[in-house]
Amino acid sequence: MPQRNLQKVQKHISKKRGAIGAMHENSRDAQRLRRAGARDERLIKHAANVDKGRRPYLDRIHYFHDAVQTVESPLSDAELADMVTKCINRDEEELAQLQQERRKGRPPIRREEALTQRTQTEEKEFKTGFWMPDMSDEDVLVALKAWNGQWSGLSPLKFIRLTQAGVKQSSSFPPKSIS
């Protein structure tokens, strides 16, 4: 999608004038090209920010997608809580390896800090309500197994917030702070 505005403007100007490089730097057409380029850059930055914000949720759903491939029946609340705990601690082995490789007295590397921070954030979220697909529903389980891996493919799924105490409440897609 990005770059389309710039390409349209370039195509229109080249049809009208011929070579794009032969125009004056402050002409109307040159200004149109600069505006189209700036608009495309803004769109690219915005798309990158949106993708960055969605990445933790997509990683989480990918984990659940892989975990339910062998599951045949809907999960109970205890099984959901167990799966959430496994999801939170999914990078525990890598974290232990990174800590073991680090020399004594050295600060942690960025990957180690990122994994620790993600784990702590998800543990806090689990106390208040962990956002996840409702895998206790048969239809959601089937849809999650058939998920294509794209953000747009998550809209038909039903989501819940599950707390450590075992309380389930329905949630919305896309996730908001506490929905």
What would your notes on this structure say?
It comes from Penicillium cinerascens. Belongs to the TMA16 family. InterPro entries: Tma16, Tma16_sf. Residues 9-18 have a biased composition (Basic residues). With 179 residues, the protein is mainly α. The chain has two domains: 1-56, no CATH class; 68-179, de novo design (two linked rop proteins), CATH 1.20.1440. The protein is built from six helices and three strands. α1 packs antiparallel against α2 (28-67) and α4 runs antiparallel to α5.
Task: Please outline what is shown here.
With 179 residues, this protein is mostly helical.
Helix/strand class: mainly alpha
In percent, how much strand structure appears in the residues? 5-15%
Q: How many angstroms separate the termini? A: 31 Å
**Uncertain parts:** none
Order of helices and strands: HHHHHEHEE
Number of helices: 6
Per CATH, the superfamily of the largest domain is: Translation machinery-associated protein 16-like
> In total, how many beta strands?
3
The CATH topology name of the largest domain reads de novo design (two linked rop proteins)
Please report the first level of CATH classification, the CATH class of the largest domain: Mainly Alpha
Largest sheet, spatial ordering of strands: 1-2-3
* Biggest beta sheet attributes: 3 strands, antiparallel
Oligomer: single chain
Mean pLDDT figure: 88
Which descriptors apply to this entry?
de novo design (two linked rop proteins), mainly alpha, 179 residues, Tma16, Translation machinery-associated protein 16, Tma16_sf, three-stranded antiparallel sheet
